[in-house]
Amino acid sequence: MADADYELTLRPDTSWLRLELREIWHYRDLLSLLVWRDFVARFKQTILGPLWIVIQPLMMTLVFTIIFGRVARLSTDGLPPVLFYLCGQLGWNYFAQNLGANSATLVANAGLFSKVYFPRLVVPLSTLVSNLFAFLIQAASFAVFFLYFKLVLKSDAFALDWRVVFLPLLILQTALLSLGVGLLMSSLTAKYRDLAQISGLLTKCGCTQRR
């Protein structure tokens, strides 16, 4: 027997700006589960686990310091090479990880999308939040090196600026930009699977050009 108080309304999306934020909040439990799933799956069956979040940028910093600092002798404008390359990787790694994961989100979660209804934006948002945790851990490791050079080694080559208060806005901008580009790539990848390989190539080429 139908419930007289129950009403289901189907309507088409009329604008790209219709994000249904209230509906996403209603499915916040699913969002938290997907965030935990992504974070755990990344380090499943690894010995060091989440330590790889810190080890990877440190290894890349060592490589950059040797190749660009010792061999190519590229200037870092008087900054310690360790801080220079660690800081340079923070924003780019967050963007590249979001883009790499979201560029194939429609294909990777096709089975989930076809079984049950939920706001489709929940899946890419879970990737942003999961990678944000990794970003914060890497930022904390950078802060440790920053304090070491500033307080222990008494380096005067750098100092904190008042514009650091805008850092959360930059992180938000990076997240939204990677989300937009990732969703565009994902919609194209659903038809042209070759783009999944190209997106990884683009992030690697972008990393090379930044150096």
Description:
By secondary structure, the chain is an all-alpha fold. The chain has one domain. Helix content is 68%, strand content 0%. The chain contains nine helices and no strands. The protein has helices at residues 21-26, 28-42, 52-71, 81-102, 105-108, 110-115, 122-152, 167-189, 194-210. The longest helix has 31 residues, at 122-152. The protein starts with 20 loop residues before the first helix and ends with a helix. 19% of the residues are buried.
DSSP strand (E) fraction? under 5%
Q: Helix and strand succession?
A: HHHHHHHHH
pLDDT < 50 runs, ≥5 residues = none
Q: Please describe the biggest sheet, giving its number of strands, its sense, and whether it closes into a barrel.
A: none
How many strand units? 0
Terminal CA distance: 67 Å
**How many domains make up the coordinates?**
1
Q: Give the number of helices.
A: 9
Structural class: mainly alpha
* Mean pLDDT across all amino acids: 80
Radius of gyration: 21 Å
Indicate the overall shape: elongated
